[in-house]
Amino acid sequence: MTQKDLLAIAGEYGSPVYVYDAEKIVSQYRRLTDAFSDVSNLRINYAVKALSNISILKLLKNQGSCLDTVSIQEVKLGVIAGFEPQRIIYTPNGVSLEEIEEVAAMGVQVNIDNLSILEQFGSKHPNIPVCIRINPHVMAGGNSNISVGHIDSKFGISIHQIPHLLRIVDNTKMRVNGIHMHTGSDILDIEVFLYAAEILFETASQFKDLDFIDFGSGFKVPYKPGDIETNIEELGEKLSARFNEFCAAYGKELTLAFEPGKFLVSQAGNFLAKVNVVKQTTSTVFAGIDSGFNHLIRPMFYNSYHQIENISNPEGRERFYSVVGYICETDTFGNNRRIAEINEGDILCFRNSGAYCFTMASNYNSRFRPAEVLWYNGKAQLIRKRESFEDLLRNQVEATFDEDVVSEVRKASAKKKVINDGAVVA
């Protein structure tokens, strides 16, 4: 997909707009499966929260992917997309027992991450196999908000609580068929991942009826040319060998599972926005676009980096700009960025916008969420319409007001006004 293609999409569907390259998603999926080709049973559970458009789910289903979900709504999206329940794993956090039971009744693999719910679920449904999420107490990830395996994390059951965990399993006679961990996102050092994996292997050895071990994900992708990333091929070689060794000692051929989200879709995404105004102050040149953190919150929320290109003037002389949005708060996408000269009306492209971008969009400032387009086999397909004003009002219900009360409020307000030079002022 070229810059010319992106400009054509912005021209046809307007801006702002998210554009996803199907070929890149497929190539990332195959890169991951190739890296772990030495494992007999490999299962890739795509993390729906990264990008939940149903067309993306269907694209990955066609590649052989399964799903990782964190809510019953994501489970239902997966079923609508054609995934069989047994090809979906559900890993919630802090949800009610009722929601977990509803998902389990659908035939979906349940993954439980706290002792309270585990005991309640095991007591009521000892015949439904469950996976258990372990917290390995390993600090990993590119930002504190996405590091979820450390000792103060709300996620997972602490490895120090394993004796209590085993007592619950023994008392309820429940079956544990999987062990899971997820340490965080943007993991660069594979040795950290392998260290956490050893903790998971040690935990798994204490359960005698497992079918799979889920190592989570968190692989780092490059955010700009020359950026570093997780060496997935080296990880595949080392972890595959260790996993096969563990299976031999365990006496059973288990399934190795991952739950990649960002790794599969991040680099496939391009966010296009139009420059509304170029504004120069005493020290800064701002490029203000027709979007804000209502559409792309990651730079403000995670301090994430997105490469910004002027695809309307790619060969222009480079200048320094701060790219900002139109929200009535500070919403800076990039400070002092070197970008080809920008003019009002130009289209800027934000790279690596496939993961946790549209899914975190909102209607803040009563703005519409943008359209989504899939580039597939050399053609653009609209996969989500841009919202309209009717969408903003769709679920609102107008209150009724007592007209007498409203009239009294107006009279009281009028008494506070004074006349000054013939004008009414508050």
What is shown here, in short?
The chain folds into two domains: 24-264, Alpha-Beta Barrel (TIM Barrel); 269-388, Beta Barrel (Lyase, Ornithine Decarboxylase, Chain A, domain 1), CATH 2.40.37.10. Helices cover 31% and strands 24% of the residues. It is built from 13 helices and 20 strands.
Radius of gyration, in angstroms, nearest whole number: 25 Å
The secondary-structure class comes to alpha/beta
Helix coverage percent: 25-40%
CATH topology value of the largest domain? TIM Barrel
Task: Using the alpha-carbon principal axes, give the shape.
Answer: globular
N- to C-terminal separation?
A: 58 Å
Largest β-sheet summary: 9 strands, mixed
Question: What is the architecture of the largest domain at the second tier of CATH?
Answer: Alpha-Beta Barrel
Fourth CATH level, the homologous superfamily of the largest domain: Alanine racemase
Family: Belongs to the Orn/Lys/Arg decarboxylase class-II family. LysA subfamily.
Organism: Neptunitalea lumnitzerae
Binding site for substrate: 298, 302, 329, 356
Pathway: Amino-acid biosynthesis; L-lysine biosynthesis via DAP pathway; L-lysine from DL-2,6-diaminopimelate: step 1/1
Structural features, described:
β17 and β18 (379-384) form a beta hairpin. The protein folds into two domains: 24-264, TIM Barrel, CATH 3.20.20.10; 269-388, Lyase, Ornithine Decarboxylase, Chain A, domain 1. With 426 residues, the protein is an alpha/beta fold. The protein has 13 helices and 20 strands. It has helices at 3-13, 22-35, 54-62, 72-80, 97-105, 115-124, 162-172, 190-204, 232-250, 262-265, 298-301, 389-393, 403-414; strands at 17-21, 42-47, 66-69, 88-90, 109-112, 130-135, 157-158, 176-180, 212-214, 255-258, 269-280, 285-289, 308-310, 318-324, 332-340, 347-351, 371-376, 379-384, 418-420, 423-425. The longest helix is centred in the middle third of the chain and has 19 residues, at 232-250. Strands 1, 11, 12, 13, 14, 15, 16, 17 and 18 form a nine-stranded mixed beta sheet that branches. It is globular, with a radius of gyration of 25 Å. The model is unreliable at 140-150 (pLDDT under 50). It catalyses: meso-2,6-diaminopimelate + H(+) = L-lysine + CO2. It comes from Neptunitalea lumnitzerae. Residues 24-266 form the Orn/DAP/Arg decarboxylase 2 N-terminal domain. It is an enzyme of class 4 (lyase). Substrate binds at residues 298, 302, 329, 356.
